[in-house]
Design brief:
The chain is mainly alpha-helical and 302 residues long. It is built from 16 helices and no strands. Helix 10 crosses helix 15 and helix 13 crosses helix 15. The longest helix has 20 residues. The protein is globular, with a radius of gyration of 20 Å. The protein starts with 11 loop residues before the first helix and ends with a helix.
Length: 302
């Protein structure tokens, strides 16, 4: 993508930044990086209040998506230094974003300290303003409970997630609903309830398909140890939850066969094949056959 940088309206930099973050959530990291680079160039021509802070946060999210967690933390530290108080409430505080990176790194003590400093507890009254923080707290609780194999703690996590799901559902906040469903699936998996885990993942995949979200599944690489997956799949924890039939479909997607031919080979209808394919795309965080095959090769699934 190329864009003229002169004659753009004030706020265009934030528009490009927003498009970059949207593409990042959809799993198209290359396009996200390109839009973010344009956002930076446009932003340098203006003097918008808080722009360096917002740019730093967006850059950190992209670095996290690319797997460079140390760079993400460094950018968040710098964004925190540059942040200024604005009129609108900050529903995604930098401290919570840093806590999510710490969780991915297995730094539970830092995550616990963050929760204590922010006064976050699973029995808090829930509200949209602190929803991102509470979901982050649930991630930290799940990671810690699985680390010590504490069944009682897992039940506490499940109860907390149920409250979060009810609140987000009532508010129509589908992005949070998807994220909580995935965390519920991981909790069920950690509790050895595979049927419940897969059922919850199916719900999350179905909703994510409607919303065009893939990043939430890609983030599950942080929970690879919880899923018992080998190091080769640490870019996508959900790869471990591909069904046997989905793996079979994935193998055939890597051949020269077209859709009807694959369906015939598997003795299923074309609609059934499309359903399997959609689930594979969502679980691998991709949106095309070619990228699905490439991701599968990266994860040694083919």
């Amino acid at each position: 993508m190329s864009a003229r940088l002169d004659g753009l309206p004030i706020g265009a930099s934030d528009l490009y930044r927003g498009l970059s973050e949207l593409l990042c959530e959809q799993g198209d990291l290359a396009a996200a990086a390109e839009y973010l680079a344009t956002a930076q160039k446009v932003g340098e021509l203006t003097e918008l209040t808080g722009w360096p802070h917002r740019l730093g946060v967006a850059q950190a999210r992209l670095k996290e998506a690319q797997g460079d967690l140390e760079a993400a933390l460094a950018l968040l530290d710098e964004a925190e230094r540059l942040s200024i108080r604005e009129a609108l409430p900050d529903v995604r505080p930098i401290a919570a974003l840093k806590a999510r990176v710490w969780i991915r790194q297995g730094r539970w003590r830092e995550a616990d300290r963050w929760a204590n400093e922010q006064g976050l507890f699973p029995d808090d009254e829930l509200s949209y303003l602190r929803e991102f923080e509470h979901v982050t707290l649930a991630e930290a609780m799940l990671a810690r409970a699985r680390q010590v194999a504490d069944r009682s703690a897992l039940r506490d996590v499940d109860r907390f997630l149920t409250r979060l799901l009810d609140s987000a559902t009532a508010g129509g906040r589908d992005a949070t609903v998807i994220e909580v469903l995935v965390l519920q699936a991981l909790t069920a998996h950690a509790s050895d309830d595979e049927n419940a885990a897969l059922a919850l993942l199916d719900k999350a995949v179905e909703l994510a398909e409607l919303e065009g979200q893939a990043r939430v599944f890609e983030r599950l690489g942080e929970f690879a140890p919880l899923l018992g997956t080998p190091e080769t799949v640490d870019q996508s924890g959900l790869a471990a939850l591909l069904s046997a039939r989905e793996l079979e479909v994935l193998h055939l997607l890597g051949t020269e066969l077209d859709g009807p031919e694959i369906a015939q080979r598997l003795f299923v209808s074309l609609n059934t094949l499309r359903t399997h394919t959609k689930h594979i795309y969502a679980k691998l965080g991709v949106n095309s056959r070619r990228t699905a095959v490439r991701r599968a090769e990266e994860l040694n699934l083919l």
